[in-house]
Amino acid sequence: MKTVFVDRDGVINVNRDDHVKCWKEFVFLPCVVQSLAELTSFGFRIVVITNQAAINRGIVSRESVELIHTRMVAALRSGGAVVEEVLCCPHRPEEACECRKPQPGLLLQAAIRLGIDLTESYLIGDALTDIRAAQEVGSHPILVLTGRGLQQLRCGWPPDMPICPVCADLAAAVRHILVREGLAPPEGLPVAA
């Protein structure tokens, strides 16, 4: 089974400048549940990877973030989407850890723990840090324009970074994956009878 890594804030849920600190502040973006359920129905493994520096900044507790993730996974499961694991980096950027994206530590952890071939996996994110982490380990990155994606793209693509597919949102990214894997026809082409 191939794996799709999905960033959290700005891809699965609405990104908040003041951070998602409790379940009440967690709002799914449109079509997320259905899109992840579609990946599940085609046999993809789903792993959420997220930077949550608000933990080490003292804005939200690790326990609160874990509770948000537990409720997110349960809500997704009730809609038919199975998330195998949620991996979270609690560190601030200045802590220079190995797990905070753009470092690939969370991807490497998942590969070891879950037996994932990273070169056969995808990563959907809304930031160039997500894209860099994926490219570092040979995964196939997709930038979405929700969350910070559009703002990051407007700043220009870094010249030292290979270009990757850009999709409007998670639903479009899932469609891109299914087409690339030969599981859905390209848009505009009729489905064979």
How would you sum up this structure, described in words?
There is one protein chain. The chain has helices at residues 32-41, 62-78, 105-114, 128-137, 149-154, 170-180; strands at residues 3-6, 45-51, 83-89, 122-125, 140-144, 166-167. The chain has one domain: Rossmann fold, CATH 3.40.50.1000. Strands 3-2-1-4-5-6 form a 6-stranded parallel β-sheet, sandwiched between helices. The chain is an alpha/beta fold. It has 6 helices and 6 strands, in the order βαβαβαβαβαβα. The protein is globular. It starts with a strand and ends in a 13-residue tail after the last helix. The longest helix is centred in the middle third of the chain and has 17 residues, at 62-78.
List keywords for this structure.
6 strands; alpha/beta; 6 helices; 6-stranded parallel beta sheet; 193 residues; Rossmann fold
The portion of residues assigned to helices is 25-40%
Helices and strands, in N-to-C order? EHEHEHEHEHEH
Determine the N-to-C terminus distance. Answer: 27 Å
Assembly state of the chains shown: single chain
Number of helices: 6
What is the total domain count?
1
Low-confidence stretches: none
- Please give the order of strands in the largest beta sheet: 3-2-1-4-5-6
What class do helices, strands and sheet pairing give?
A: alpha/beta
* Strand element count: 6
Q: Tell me the Rg in angstroms.
A: 16 Å
Architecture (CATH level 2) name = 3-Layer(aba) Sandwich
The CATH class, by name, is: Alpha Beta
Biggest sheet, in brief? 6 strands, parallel
> Strand percentage, roughly?
15-25%
CATH superfamily: HAD superfamily/HAD-like
Shape: globular
